[in-house]
Design brief:
Number of strands of chain C: 12
Chains: A mainly alpha, B alpha/beta, C alpha/beta
Number of helices of chain A: 26
CATH architecture of the largest domain in chain C: 3-Layer(aba) Sandwich
Distance between the termini of chain A: 74 Å
Structural class of chain C: alpha/beta
Distance between the termini of chain C: 52 Å
CATH architecture of the largest domain in chain A: Orthogonal Bundle
Number of strands of chain A: 10
Shape of chain A: globular
Number of domains of chain C: 2
Helix content of chain A: 55-70%
Strand content of chain C: 15-25%
Radius of gyration of chain C: 21 Å
Number of domains of chain A: 2
Radius of gyration of chain A: 26 Å
CATH topology of the largest domain in chain A: ABC transporter involved in vitamin B12 uptake, BtuC
Largest interface: A-C, 70 and 69 residues
CATH class of the largest domain in chain C: Alpha Beta
Oligomer: heterotrimer
Order of helices and strands of chain C: HEHEHEHEEHEHEHEHEHEHHHEE
CATH topology of the largest domain in chain C: Rossmann fold
CATH class of the largest domain in chain A: Mainly Alpha
Chain lengths: 668, 254, 371
């Protein structure tokens, strides 16, 4: 009873913070159908500004700066307003140019902004945590309820603030002109425009209010847990998003209920289930998946919101006109390529020749390794591209397939054969090639199993559900130590070999990877240039029309998951053997988002796009290591990357290789 | 005349709302059957139920003696019913020819291995249907746009592409859901000609349309839906003289 | 870089012609890698500060000159492998330092094996790294040694009968926790229960509520200072007034500035004592405060000592011929009881280090010797 009471008290406090952040997501999503991942970072910025204002002095950029040392009651509103301003500016300059772009472009901008803000925060405030200053209320001794349940005075304040602000927001949306305009826009943006509502103003208002709520939640969170840190916003942001979906995205009471529910599930799951704390993050996702299976619109969501607009991912709308130099390059490359058009095979063979020659011309093992990673990530992205780019299903759980392939071969080679049966890996070198197939098929099977419950979902709900699957698999890999050795990882995986000839050197690994890439690239290309590819793309472009034209949409969706999974599994096996070590560290949510970004940067639904995206990303990060100011400020490398992502998306929302659209027929 | 489609007691409920109530309809093979009724009468829901896109709550749909009422959309297409949409639903990011080829989806029999190894079976199949698709594009008069993106096609041509796409499934019954909406009279005339030629190929048509002129011109029989129920059904002249139809359309004053 | 190589070979050439050239100054390039941005950047940055300070002092003293090129792995295995290869392929790099995550070091080891580049890591404790490569060494004690010593200390010296164990769910936390519980139970103690958390967790209230229900007389935290401070703070708020025990991961001035009153009385262990400047540690502790305006922590101390070991190995390698990757690697094996701020350094055959631990207690906002 004592435990129960204390857990309940903890859960309510946590739930209040989740709910506040969930409001931010839900509000903006309701108006522009955008999951603004950057709210997690605005949450963090709010906390940092508030703490800075409260301290007598703060070290900014490593220099001690005098601060006003305001009391919380003054610092908090100031911090919240500043963050609101940042939110509005972000909307104006980063999102507004993308109003008519494909829906994934603003999502990638949101991720880019997250990375940028996080890195800048580390530059400004440093990498160490700052503790939240004490003040009058926080120093009061905790109240003891029923003899044993400890509740801080501030926790009650947090709850009260949460309730009051939610009520105020609800009244605002229900009874002010702007609030009603927001609701109208959420229900039917076109009709809202027709009756004279300024969409720009409504969207700016949604971002403003969302940012205010994120900042409020952030500083309450910082106060409750006593610290601020540049990466503090990521997990609460993700949880809040989950809460918003749980409650039904677009619904304010839904966000409140979702936040509370999520906190209760997590807290009680962790408190009462055996080894519950380790699996804590998995419970929320588990419940979310179950709920979405039976009630795809969330608890209080309305069904209509669950309809993704047709052609949601890869629209034909464009952002700003690309800069002159880019257009010039594209024209040059195209005119050059056009010369080869009569014999397209010549072009393919030429590229292949160059790729093979690279293995022998590049003498630096470092650059060969970079190319191996470009191939690996290009292939992973190609696999995901089947699901996202061609079929239009936003999948954020793709790393699970990669992990399955990697762990399959690692467990088999090291834990089973070597450690249990004493079989030397060199004696079973051929098993690597067999595993490529087994890993592929196992991952494909998993793809079907994970894909099946998502068949009814569309758009962003699908993304959240797949994200949940991916995280559950990663959390399991981390905690099921008997199977995977958990965070210790599995080492000693043999390099690939051909008979007695070891292929462990970067040069040979690159060639093995290249061979794999050629085969997979060709297979994907041939599937796409057929009735299968047309069925996939038709689902992406308009699912109900595809259905009406006789495409068995569930079957082709599952087939897309299976094909994508297959590629992920195969690459996983190769990855494990080329790294000779696997650990859950390689299969994080960020890796997942990264793979998605590679496709969007390169060009969704193109064959070459994933490789272009991978080359850009991996080479950029490596080259940036050598820039002198990165040497002294390592975190700015990712700030640069975030900035590059945002600019790229604003100017080229269709991706770099947008013109390399695949013909969905056999080339003649 | 032989009966192609027989609908009996078809009912569709959305929660408490009954959108289609106990509708009976039978369509003779080779005929053009019109379906009219004011907005919100349940015409589109009726078409959606026929094509399996909404689940019917009761009644039977029989095509050529085959029961279809619990079939999935792709099974219904395979049975020989295909449709166009009132609000155009093309695959915007695909070319005109590719759009048409999606219509032919059900005819492709190549296996995955055929595709991956580019077998001659696969190549033959692909070539055959590209040729047929080109013919249908020619038939509706948009052949020269075959490599244009569907989203950039002029409005009237988009309607034609929808018809060509549906024709490629080789349907026995073609459902045209307000194919002339938003067209001027010249475009309507051209489309009417196309519809007549489709009929001449022996394809039965269920035509939903508001333009009474066109209905008179094209159809053999007319059914009137009102508040989800069949108000009347009969030959064009019979129906147009029916007093209840005038009331439904023009209000009691007429 | 080409110029630098020329200078280097010029120096080598002169060394051949000059008598007594074995003591000629060498230019040594150190590749430093760790997570320097992202979630866990603080550990790596501290290590680098320690190393930078050491090289500044060594370079100022004349003789061999050391230059550091650093690369941020951001805690990502992919970057870890590429950085390892980058250092391997860069012929100027003679030795590698750093590493904040065992997983990344484990992913990088096969690459170093391929090019024979010696590594001296500072903050990775996984038992899997013992003997993983003949080029890999570390100057931190393994989890097993640490946990065992703490387990015995808790039972025998502190006389704690009922300890609740909470550890970080990774190689470090699991290693320490396993060793601790084994030693503690062998010494007659009884574990009240075990909990695990992921590095970076902020909310421990649920786990603390669970622990409180088991009424232990102490809680052993197998993890780093950021989490240890939160556990203590949130525990106190829940009315959990017990003895807190920590590891070397918590031996950090930040523990006190984050945890404030709540960590008062916590006992941790470590290889160096940040509060007490002995003759060995004075240049480090005072130099660090002067350079960075803050007190050093265990990560900085390990980085400093690793740099000292590199300097020592360079000296040894220089005495027996030219300084190459191979000769440096051999030289590391020859280092014997080199004094340092974390005690004497000797590397065993499998690359591990043995050493003594101090037990320190937080008293009046200061670490003080516990025994």
């Amino acid at each position: 009873m004592e435990l129960f009471g204390q857990l309940l008290a903890n859960a309510i406090m946590l739930g209040a913070i989740y709910a506040l952040t969930a409001v931010a997501y839900t509000l903006v999503y309701g108006v522009v159908q955008l999951v603004n991942f950057a709210f997690g970072e605005l949450f963090m910025v709010g906390a940092f500004i508030c703490v800075s204002l409260m301290l007598p002095s703060v070290s900014l950029f490593g220099v001690s700066v005098a601060m006003p040392g305001l009391p919380l009651i003054l610092a908090a509103p100031l911090a919240i307003l500043l963050v609101g301003l940042i939110g509005v500016l972000v909307e104006r300059f980063a999102y507004r140019p993308l109003r008519n772009a494909p829906r994934l472009a603003p999502l990638i901008v949101a991720i880019g902004l997250s990375v940028l803000l996080q890195s800048l925060a580390q530059s400004i405030w440093g990498a160490e945590e700052l503790s939240f200053p004490e003040f009058g209320l926080s120093k009061l001794p905790p109240l003891v309820l029923f003899g044993s349940i400890h509740v801080n005075v501030m926790e009650i304040v947090v709850l009260a603030v949460a309730i009051v602000s939610m009520v105020v927001l609800t009244i605002f949306v229900k009874s002010t002109r702007l609030g009603r305009a927001m609701r109208a826009t959420a229900e039917d943006p076109i009709a809202a425009r027709l009756v004279g509502i300024s969409i720009d103003r409504v969207i700016a208002a949604a971002f403003l209010i969302g940012s205010l709520f994120a900042a409020l939640a952030g500083l309450l969170y910082a106060q409750a847990y006593g610290f601020v840190h540049p990466t503090m916003g990521f997990l609460p942001g993700l949880k809040a998003l989950t809460a918003a979906v749980l409650g039904g995205i677009g619904s304010i009471p839904g966000a409140a209920i979702g936040g509370m529910l999520l906190a209760l599930i997590e807290t009680f799951g962790a408190g009462y289930l055996p080894n519950g704390s380790a699996y804590r993050d998995a419970f929320g996702f588990g419940i979310l998946i179950l709920l979405l299976m039976f009630r795809p619109q969330g608890l209080l969501g309305r069904r209509e919101l669950n309809e993704a607009p047709a052609g949601s991912l890869v629209g034909t709308g464009a952002g700003k006109t690309p800069p002159q130099w880019y257009q010039a390059i594209v024209r040059l490359v195209e005119s050059w390529l056009l010369r080869f058009k009569p014999g397209k095979t010549v072009l393919t063979l030429g590229v292949l020749f160059v790729a093979v020659a690279a293995a022998f011309l590049i003498t630096s093992d470092y650059w060969l390794r970079i190319l191996i990673f470009v191939l690996t990530y290009g292939l992973l992205a190609s696999g995901l591209n089947i699901v996202v780019g061609f079929t239009g299903l936003l999948d954020l759980g793709f790393v699970a397939f990669w992990a399955v392939g990697s762990y399959l071969t690692s467990i088999l080679f090291v834990l089973v054969l070597k450690q249990t049966f004493g079989i030397a890996p060199a004696d079973v070198w051929w098993l690597f090639y067999v595993n490529l197939l087994i890993g592929g098929f196992l991952a494909a099977l998993l793809g079907v199993a994970l894909g099946y419950p998502t068949l009814k979902l569309r758009g962003d709900y699908l993304a959240i559900m797949t994200l949940g699957f991916g995280e559950i698999i990663r959390i399991t890999a981390t905690n099921w130590i008997d199977l995977t050795r958990g965070p210790m990882g599995i080492r000693g995986i043999p390099s690939p070999a051909l008979f007695d000839f070891p292929l462990g050197q970067p040069r040979y690994l690159y060639l093995v990877g290249l061979a794999l890439a050629v085969v997979i690239f060709a297979c994907i290309g041939r599937l796409v240039r057929s009735y299968v590819g047309r069925a996939w793309v038709s689902i992406r472009e308009n699912e109900s029309a595809a259905e009406a034209m006789g495409v068995d949409t569930p079957r082709y969706k599952l087939f897309a998951y299976a094909s994508g999974g297959f590629v992920g599994g195969v690459v996983g096996v190769f990855y494990a053997h080329s790294q000779q070590y696997v650990s859950p560290l390689s299969f994080t949510l960020f890796e997942n988002i990264l793979i998605l970004m590679l496709i969007v940067m390169g060009g969704l639904g193109t064959l070459i796009g994933p490789f272009i995206g991978a080359a850009f990303w991996i080479i950029f990060l490596q080259v940036a290591q050598d820039i002198p100011f990165i040497q002294s400020h390592p975190e700015l490398r990712f700030a640069l990357l975030g900035l590059a992502l945002v600019c790229l998306m604003i100017y080229l929302p269709q991706g770099v290789a947008a013109r390399a659209r695949v013909k969905l027929m056999v080339p003649r | 005349m032989m009966e192609l489609l027989k609908v009996e007691g078809l009912t569709v409920r959305f929660g408490g709302l009954v959108a289609v109530k106990n509708v009976n309809l039978s369509i003779a093979a080779g005929s053009i059957q019109a379906l009219i009724g004011p907005n919100g009468a349940g015409k589109s829901t009726f078409v959606n139920a026929l094509t399996g896109m909404v689940r019917s709550s009761g009644g039977t749909i029989v095509l050529n003696g085959k029961a279809l009422h619990d079939q999935k959309p792709h099974q219904i297409v395979a049975a020989g019913i295909c449709r166009t949409f009132q609000n155009i639903r093309l695959f915007g990011g695909m070319t005109v020819l590719e759009n048409a080829l999606v219509g032919a989806h059900r005819h492709f029999k190549s296996s995955m291995l055929d595709l991956v190894f580019q077998s001659s079976r696969m190549k033959d199949e692909e070539a055959q249907w590209i040729a047929e698709a080109a013919e249908e594009l020619e038939f509706v008069g948009i052949a020269k746009y075959r490599d244009t993106m569907a989203s950039t096609l002029p409005y009237g041509h988009q309607r034609r592409l929808e018809i060509a796409r549906a024709l490629l499934s080789k349907p026995e019954l073609l459902l045209l859901d307000e194919p002339m909406a938003g067209m001027n009279s010249a475009e309507k005339d051209q489309l009417a000609q196309i519809i007549t030629r489709v009929r001449q190929r022996g394809i039965t048509i269920l035509l939903i349309e508001h333009d009474m002129q066109i209905i008179r011109q094209l159809s053999d029989r007319v059914a009137v839906l009102h508040h989800g129920e069949t108000l009347t059904e009969g030959t064009v002249n019979d129906v147009f003289n029916h007093i209840a139809v005038k009331e439904a359309y023009l209000g009691r004053a007429a | 870089m080409g110029v630098k190589r020329k200078v280097l070979s010029l120096m080598m050439a002169t060394a051949l012609f000059l008598p007594g050239a074995a003591s000629a100054a060498e230019k040594i390039t150190i590749g430093f890698t760790a997570a320097l941005s992202g979630d866990f950047a603080a550990f790596g940055l501290n290590m680098r500060k320690g190393a930078d300070l050491a090289f500044k002092q060594i370079n100022a003293a004349g003789g061999n000159q050391f230059e550091v090129v650093s690369a941020d792995d951001r805690g990502e295995a992919r970057e870890g492998v590429l950085i390892a290869q980058k250092f391997c392929s860069d012929e100027n790099v003679d030795v590698v330092m750093g590493y904040s995550f065992s997983s990344i070091a484990l992913a990088a080891v096969p690459v170093y094996d391929g090019c024979g580049l010696p590594v001296i890591a500072s903050a990775v404790t996984s038992p899997d790294l013992s003997g993983a490569s003949k080029f890999f060494r570390r100057n931190i004690l393994t989890d097993a040694v640490q946990g065992t010593m703490m387990g015995e200390f808790a039972s025998k010296t502190l006389n704690l009968k009922n300890v609740y164990l909470i550890h970080q769910q990774d190689d470090y936390g699991i290693g320490v926790a396993n060793a601790f519980s084994k030693a503690y139970e062998a010494a007659g103690g009884k574990l009240a229960g075990t909990e695990a958390y992921v590095l970076g967790t902020k909310d421990f209230k649920t786990q603390l509520a669970k622990m409180k229900a088991a009424s232990p007389d102490a809680i052993f935290i197998g993890g780093f200072y950021t989490e240890a401070a939160k556990i203590a703070e949130q525990g106190k708020a829940l009315g959990l007034n017990v003895q807190f025990l920590g590891t070397d991961g918590a031996l950090n001035p930040e523990l006190i500035s984050l945890g404030q009153d709540a960590v008062e009385g916590m006992i941790v262990y470590g290889m160096f004592d940040p509060s007490l400047a002995t003759p060995e540690t004075a240049p480090f502790i005072n130099g660090y405060k002067e350079a960075y305006g803050e007190a050093p922590n265990a990560f900085a101390a390990l980085g400093y000592d690793a740099a000292m070991a590199v300097a020592e190995a360079t000296k040894i390698a220089g005495q027996s011929g030219g300084v190459t990757r191979a000769s440096l690697n051999d030289a590391f094996g020859k280092i014997k009881d080199m004094p340092g701020v974390t005690g004497p350094t000797t590397f065993s055959e499998n690359g591990d280090r043995s050493g003594a631990l101090y037990f320190l207690k937080v008293q009046d906002g200061q670490f003080t010797l516990a025994k």
